[in-house]
């Protein structure tokens, strides 16, 4: 015990222990009275020897002349448990880290030294393996051989070069032979580019011809064919874009013909439940205006106050039930302080009033409702009782459960109302969801369900989560329809001996997991990881499983460019990589070879407004120093094409004068980008013919521009609106059911799409917008990013100080002129013109730098 106290005394101080009374201070005892200390047997501390013996067991298994993978420490401790440190060991006091942390630190130090040594020894390799010498970040990506590595690559940072160089490094260092290296690409074009690059850059590397480069789906077919002995055929409806939705449409028609109940359910969903009513308790978002009334337009053409009332009105319309919305009550109720009572619905054929109350299951109204709402409901009931007028009630809770419409139909029939469902009735106002639109939703839902590998119990659980505060009746009816359509889809695939794209990945993953397919790969590299579905993740996990030996997985992607959610991609695979793959490491490629620094700064600041996006700093090698982002505003967007033509004329003149030179090719490249195919300029071919000798002009949708670059990018029709940019054609909330975790940030995917558009430019981006209705993204760049807009054919307008989405428009009311937001009724900001000079305004300054040089 004394030896232990002595050791502690050395560590914490002798005087502290004496004051605490833990040891006696003999210096205060007279020498004559001190008792001799009894001799103590020596205490043997063999902890150091036990540690040396323990290390001797596993050290031969660790090759310190190579990179030590991140999983090594835990694997060692699992096979060789660390000896317990002696209570009497000074080492126990001085080294407080756990054995695991000590091993990780040891191996990290080894890897740091190894990396530095490799960079020096293999400099000729890293300088020559690609057209340009690799950056330090790219070299780090090549050398790091942790169990799972995620490389987060900025736009234009050379991720393809890194993948090719990493394969070359592995071949050069004999870490794997060509047959043991697999490169996976997202689509056919990307796979071909990788093949070409491997062939060109690794021509002198032994085994390079054996490196396998495939798309995920192509590799899935290979696995299925190898494991089953029979190569399956892709369903014909999947060979061309859009034919899968046509197949769903055909199935719907056939089911409707065979099954009257399905036909009725499908049309009820499409006509009545087609548009979601929003989450319980959510604040209203009016989307229509007519004759002073703000709200939501119905199939009959009325403007009603809530989406729930719209649903009721649409049900009435398609069942040929005459109604009057907010008809003045037949008895006078108006006073000096209250207006005349107007019940929600009135059914003239049967003299029935109908009030729809926003009460939940608890009988309470949403928090944003007026505090007198409950009392108002009581007053209405008592009024009808007093005046002997018939009143029928429904609630928000009953709408959610589906009970409201059943109750309504029963009440109407009981009172003698004729009801006839007519799905072919032509809408006077809001048009219904089309069969094609709904078929597309079913197909996307199916892709997510299959690619995420959701079993029936998992689907049931996912549906239950949405039922809590969602529109339960709508959800349950859709799920019922979906399973009927999905079963017929699968039956037709079996009958034809076909598979779909999701099957290629799912079955391949199952064969690898079961060991039916013996994977030969020691290194798996996957591109465009941000576009991965859960089926792709399952395939990668199966390939990198320990039972296949020590496999190195390296994925490259950029969550800032995750724009394929509609195709089943799950952006959370980037942010949750370390949860999905144990022992994972994250590296960054933050040096871009494409965009000017000012464009890097503007685009990075814009995309990182979403806190979910992985943080990174982007620097450039570009020396371009002129303005990298310009914006032009038009009173009439039809005039924007004339302005584009003028810019081409100006470019030609500058080229002829020698003031404008190509960055690499023999012509200046100009990429015209649109959110939709319909944004294709009508004069595109004329421009290509007229300027083709000096300008390489092309048009792409932003989705199809991924991976492309050009000297100049012209971003067309960046306006606010339903089919604007950002697109306000919202994904149906039903699609949240099969998705693991939606991105909660507003317009998150559209923001990433805008980032992709900005970062295609090697020199400059030119944004074409509307002065009266600019995109909220343009407004954000103005108010937060310092962008200046040049008015081409009109006057600049001030951004709305409330929503920062619309601009202020001059309007005239009964009390005179006033300014209000262009997005009204969504935003209700307004102010008197007389107050304008007093207001703190944000001006859209005219751009002084029009240079395209």
Automatic annotation (TrEMBL):
* Stored Pfam families: UvrD-helicase, UvrD_C, Zn_ribbon_Top1
- Name the Gene Ontology biological process terms: DNA topological change; recombinational repair
The lineage, from the top, is: Bacteria, Pseudomonadati, Pseudomonadota, Alphaproteobacteria, Hyphomicrobiales
Keyword list, A-Z: ATP-binding, Helicase, Hydrolase, Isomerase, Nucleotide-binding
Q: Ranges for the UvrD-like helicase ATP-binding domain?
A: 132-596
Which EC main class describes this enzyme?
isomerase
- Binding positions for ATP per the UniProt entry: 153-160
What CDD domains is this protein classified in?
A: SF1_C_UvrD (cd18807)
The EC number(s) given in the record are: 5.6.2.4
Q: Which reaction does it catalyse?
A: Couples ATP hydrolysis with the unwinding of duplex DNA by translocating in the 3'-5' direction; ATP + H2O = ADP + phosphate + H(+)
The protein depicted here goes by the name: DNA 3'-5' helicase
Which GO terms label this protein's molecular function in UniProt? 3'-5' DNA helicase activity; ATP binding; DNA binding; DNA topoisomerase activity; hydrolase activity
């Amino acid at each position: 015990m004394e030896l232990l106290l002595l050791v502690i005394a050395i560590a914490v101080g002798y005087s502290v222990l004496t004051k605490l009374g833990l040891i006696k201070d003999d210096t205060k005892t007279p020498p004559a009275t001190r008792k001799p200390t009894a001799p103590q047997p020596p205490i043997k501390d063999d902890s150091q020897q036990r540690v040396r013996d323990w290390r001797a067991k596993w050290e031969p298994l660790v090759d310190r002349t190579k990179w030590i993978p991140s999983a090594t420490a835990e694997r060692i401790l699992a096979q060789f448990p660390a000896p317990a440190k002696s209570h009497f060991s000074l080492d126990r006091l001085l080294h407080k880290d756990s054995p695991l942390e000590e091993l990780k630190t040891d191996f990290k130090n080894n890897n740091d030294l190894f990396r530095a040594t490799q960079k020096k020894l293999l400099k000729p390799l890293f300088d020559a393996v690609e057209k340009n010498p690799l950056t330090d970040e790219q070299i780090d990506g090549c050398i790091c051989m942790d169990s799972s590595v995620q490389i987060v690559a900025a736009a234009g940072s050379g991720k393809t070069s890194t993948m090719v160089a990493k394969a070359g490094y592995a071949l050069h260092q004999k870490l794997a032979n060509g047959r043991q290296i697999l490169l996976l690409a997202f689509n056919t074009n990307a796979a071909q580019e990788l093949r070409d690059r491997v062939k060109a850059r690794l021509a002198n590397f032994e085994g390079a011809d054996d490196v396998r480069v495939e798309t995920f789906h192509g590799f899935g077919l290979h696995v299925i064919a190898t494991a089953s002995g029979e190569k399956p055929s892709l369903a014909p409806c999947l060979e061309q874009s859009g034919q899968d939705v046509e197949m769903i449409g055909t199935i719907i028609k056939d089911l409707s013909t065979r099954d009257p109940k399905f036909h009725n359910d499908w049309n009820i969903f499409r006509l009545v439940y087609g548009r979601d009513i929003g989450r319980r308790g959510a604040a209203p978002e009016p989307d229509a205006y007519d004759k002073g009334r703000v709200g939501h337009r119905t199939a009959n053409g009325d403007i009603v106050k809530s989406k729930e009332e719209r649903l009721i009105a649409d049900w009435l319309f398609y069942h040929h039930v005459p109604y009057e919305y907010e008809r003045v009550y037949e008895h006078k109720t108006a006073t000096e302080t209250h207006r005349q009572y107007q019940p929600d619905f009135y059914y003239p054929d049967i003299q029935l009033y109908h009030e729809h109350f926003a009460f939940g299951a608890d009988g309470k109204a949403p928090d944003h409702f007026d505090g007198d709402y409950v009392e108002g409901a009581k007053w209405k009931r008592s009024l009808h009782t007093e005046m002997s007028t018939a009143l029928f009630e429904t609630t928000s809770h009953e709408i959610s459960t589906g009970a409201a419409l059943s109750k309504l139909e029963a009440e109407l029939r009981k009172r003698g109302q004729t009801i006839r469902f007519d799905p072919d009735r032509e809408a006077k106002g809001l048009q219904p969801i089309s069969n094609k639109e709904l078929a597309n939703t079913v197909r996307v839902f199916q892709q997510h369900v299959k690619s995420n590998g959701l079993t029936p119990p998992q689907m049931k659980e996912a549906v239950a989560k949405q039922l809590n505060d969602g529109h339960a009746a709508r959800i349950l009816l859709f799920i019922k329809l979906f399973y009927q359509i999905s079963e017929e889809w699968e039956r037709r695939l079996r009958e034809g001996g076909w598979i779909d794209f999701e099957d290629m990945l799912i079955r391949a993953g199952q064969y690898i997991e079961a060991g039916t397919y013996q994977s030969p790969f020691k290194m798996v590299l996957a591109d465009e990881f941000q576009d991965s579905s859960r089926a792709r993740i399952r395939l990668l996990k199966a390939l990198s499983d320990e039972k296949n030996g020590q496999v190195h997985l390296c994925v490259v992607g950029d969550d800032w460019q995750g724009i394929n959610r509609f195709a089943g991609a799950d952006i959370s695979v980037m942010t949750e990589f370390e949860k999905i793959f144990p022992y994972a490491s994250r590296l960054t490629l933050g040096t871009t070879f494409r965009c000017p620094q000012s464009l890097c700064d503007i685009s990075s600041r814009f995309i990182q407004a979403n806190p979910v996006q992985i943080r990174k700093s982007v620097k450039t090698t570009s020396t371009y120093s002129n303005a990298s982002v310009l914006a032009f505003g038009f009173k009439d967007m039809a005039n924007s094409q004339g302005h584009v033509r003028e810019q081409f004329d100006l470019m030609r003149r500058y080229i002829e004068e020698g003031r404008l030179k190509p960055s690499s090719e023999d012509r200046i490249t100009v990429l015209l980008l649109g959110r939709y195919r319909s944004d294709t300029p009508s004069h595109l071919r004329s421009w290509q013919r007229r300027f083709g000798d000096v300008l390489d002009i092309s048009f792409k949708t932003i989705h199809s521009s991924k991976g492309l670059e050009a000297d100049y990018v012209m971003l067309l029709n960046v306006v606010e609106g339903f089919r604007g940019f950002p697109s306000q054609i919202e994904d149906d909330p039903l699609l949240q059911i099969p998705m693991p975790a939606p991105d909660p940030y507003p317009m998150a995917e559209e923001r990433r799409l805008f980032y992709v558009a900005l970062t295609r430019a090697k020199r400059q981006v030119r944004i074409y917008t509307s002065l009266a209705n600019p995109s909220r993204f343009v407004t954000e760049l103005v108010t937060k990013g310092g962008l200046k807009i040049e008015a081409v054919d009109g006057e600049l307008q001030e951004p709305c100080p409330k929503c920062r989405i619309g601009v202020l428009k001059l309007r005239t009311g009964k009390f005179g002129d006033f300014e209000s937001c262009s997005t009204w009724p969504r935003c209700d900001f307004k102010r008197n013109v007389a107050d304008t000079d007093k207001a703190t305004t944000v001006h859209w300054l005219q751009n002084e730098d029009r240079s395209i040089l």
